[in-house]
TrEMBL record:
Annotated ranges, domain DUF2383: 6-116
InterPro entries xref list: CHP02284, DUF2383, Ferritin-like, Ferritin-like_SF
Lineage of the species this protein comes from: Bacteria, Pseudomonadati, Bacteroidota, Flavobacteriia, Flavobacteriales
Name of the protein: DUF2383 domain-containing protein
Organism, scientific name: Croceibacter atlanticus (strain ATCC BAA-628 / JCM 21780 / CIP 108009 / IAM 15332 / KCTC 12090 / HTCC2559)
Signal peptide range: none
Domain of life according to the entry: Bacteria
Length: 150
């Protein structure tokens, strides 16, 4: 992949994190359980932080990148949290958790696909992405445990 394609892929991950942020905020507003609501709010903040860190890394990696022109991101826009409306309409915490599981699994796939397809990225960018995917995997485990309780 060339620098432009890599930049577009990073932009897509940023957009997915922004979608995850919005999705977690929406489910937090709908959650019945206060602990679950707090968990969702925490995850929303984490995804916003992820997007910010990746945007900073992208600006360092490719200062000329125009985030409005990322063709690959437009092609698969907002896949991660597309079904939040369905979960919200069911009005129960289990449905919200299931949607979070689905969204986080899709996020992990996107991150891992990026890492597998881009072996030549700078170490600092690889480190940031690797840490974020590990954090999402940890969240996935937490969501699975919470789903067992609800």
């Amino acid at each position: 992949m060339d620098k432009k394609e890599i930049s577009n892929s990073i932009q897509e991950i940023i957009e997915n994190n922004n979608d995850s942020y919005k999705g977690y905020k929406q489910v937090a507003d709908k959650a019945n359980d206060s602990q679950l609501r707090s968990f969702f709010i925490q995850q929303a903040a984490e995804r916003k932080e992820f997007a910010g860190k990746l945007l900073n890394q992208l600006k360092i990696y490719n200062p000329d990148h125009n985030d409005n022109a990322s063709g690959s991101a437009v092609g698969s826009l907002h896949r991660t949290w597309i079904n939040v409306k369905t979960a919200l309409s069911q009005d129960n915490d289990e449905a919200l958790l299931e949607e979070c599981l689905r969204g986080d699994k899709a996020s992990i796939e996107d991150y891992e696909e990026f890492l597998n397809n881009n072996k030549e990225i700078p170490d600092n960018l690889r480190s940031t992405i690797t840490q974020q995917v590990q954090d999402i995997k940890n969240t996935l485990e937490s969501v699975s445990r919470l789903e067992d309780v609800h």
